[in-house]
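Cross-check.
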Amino acid sequence: MNYKDYIKNLNDEFNNNSVEPFIGDREQKYKSGYRVPSGCAVFGIINEEAQLFDGRMVIDGISMMHDRSNGLGGGFAAYGIYPEYKNEYAFHVFYNDSQARKEAEVFLQKAFRILYIDEIPTKKVSAISNPPIIARYFLKPKNIIQILEKSDACKNLSNEDIIHAEEEFTADFVSNFNASSEGAYIISSGKNMGIFKGVGFPEDLGEFYKLDEYKAYIWTSHGRFPTNSTGWWGGAHPFGFLNWSVVHNGEISSYGTNKRFVSGFGYKCSFSTDTEVLAYLFDLLVRRHGISLYLINYILAAPLWNDIDILPEEINEFLKAVRIIYGRALVNGPFSIIVGSNNFMYALNDRIKLRPLVAAKKGSMTFVSSEESAIRKVCANPDVVWNPGGGEPVIVFIKGNNPAEVSGTKIKQENFLENISRFSRCLA
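Predicted model, tokenized:
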């Protein structure tokens, strides 16, 4: 059987089966006997000048990799789309029915001051069936300042202290809500950003959510070919947590270890899909532990022990310490990921590059993709195209938001030891 027939059989099988409810039995395995381990597509674009552009470009890019997915999941994350509510949390929530929505909103109203509610605008697309109720909320945590000021240790609070407390409160609420709620899931919980996903091909979901009417300065997208979990609306990518969004191609064979590691810090994996744990790893390592993005790859895609042994002693000792401290955060298995946040886009392969990832740059625009064809679809003549090595990150900041530049230190390979010193102080 050739490849085209193989894909046709898979799609015929999917079309002949009724689509499962968006929240059904999350433990049910994808029923197909076929498996394409190298499937899934990831695609991302960032404008370093924070100039907004609509979703048509990202829809066109991900559509070029149509055959890497099979209609069981797709989605998009967009940053900069809610400037009128840029200081409030934007929740996107899936509801199985109106009763689930009514019950969930009781909890939302107890914990947050809701400034605005609506249903996310969609349009009928023949390829998208059985969508959930998709609601959107702009809100602020209630009574955080009053709670903090009751503690003698929390007098004279700075704005940074309040923001940190609100982040912790919101993170805890979202994690507990998704773990305990029935028929409702918060799929997006950041500020001035949103996640739009579901069951279908990504280009169809882009039309369904009318993403060409949104403007953002970072877009990431995903076309899914489930391998170890069922296709359902909540299990589609991106996975979001606070301002983080993650799209992923591959399989995380270390999922059990990674899940137990983050659970020790209060995170609850509720979507029965391995990718979810990556969002929690980034939140834990970067937001809570304060580890530089320039060093995250040495944890998630750590060098092999044999490679560490031949490095100079001072680097050798540091990397050994990192592997010991964060050994359970090592992500094993084939993967390529694109991570979005408000100020940057981050892409990474597994350390031996078992999944494809290509990058390109044109002026202030940077692209990362599973295939070069997707980039050239939307940018015919990029200034430069390159293939990142295994475990080599692609990190692009919005100008003025690079912590290395703000601190006066431009982090490069040649002053790696200086950054290790900074990281060691962070761990202490």
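The CA atoms of residues 22 and 232 lie 5 Å apart. The chain has a mean pLDDT of 85. Passed to J.P. for a second look.
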